[in-house]
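pls read this protein.

:::
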Amino acid sequence: MTAAPLDVYSRISALEFVLEVMLANQLAGMSEEVSERFKRDLVSRPSHLPPRSGPVDAEVFQELERRTTADLENFSRKVGKREEEIRATFAQNR
């Protein structure tokens, strides 16, 4: 991998981790019911192509939608796991 894509990938990975921790911490402060509803909602949102001129290739859109859904499901799982860890830590400190 060349330097530019590696730099972009590392920054995206770092930002994803920060978002994961921040969201998990926020969700851990909510009731489990509200948290689960939020995570289901997050995954169920449709993806959108960025605005561009010209016709939209249906196969490209379907692939983008599939990948976005898979990424959101994976992110939601990671957030849920971290949220459980935070809730367990809160429970131990009470």
User: Anything to note?
Assistant: Residues 22 and 75 are 12 Å apart (CA to CA). Residues 57-94 form one domain. The two ends are 47 Å apart (CA to CA). The chain has three helices and no strands.
